[in-house]
Design goal:
Blueprint (H helix, E strand, L loop, with lengths): L19 H12 L8 H16 L3 H17 L3
Helix pairs in contact: 1-2
Length: about 80
């Protein structure tokens, strides 16, 4: 009677955590289309301004805005 081999579970490769710079680059790639050319520098400037505006709000309000933006992003076609 042959013994069954134990199933070997493959562990997924650990993904290194994204940095703020990685997010800037990803946003720039998504925003840069045939009809609109946006550089990483422009993206960083706009997102930095976004964070500056959020800084003026209480943390709960700022996170509420982010949550609403994420909800809206989930309803758009990409």
């Amino acid at each position: 009677m042959a013994k069954k081999k134990a199933a070997v579970k493959k562990t997924p490769a650990k993904k290194k955590p994204s940095t703020l710079n990685d997010i800037y680059n990803e946003v720039s790639r998504k925003a840069d289309t045939d009809g609109l050319k946006i550089s990483v520098a422009e993206t960083k400037r706009v997102l930095a301004c976004f964070f500056d505006v959020l800084e003026d709000y209480k943390p709960a309000e700022a996170f509420d805005f982010v949550a609403k933006g994420l909800k809206r992003a989930g309803t758009r076609r990409r």
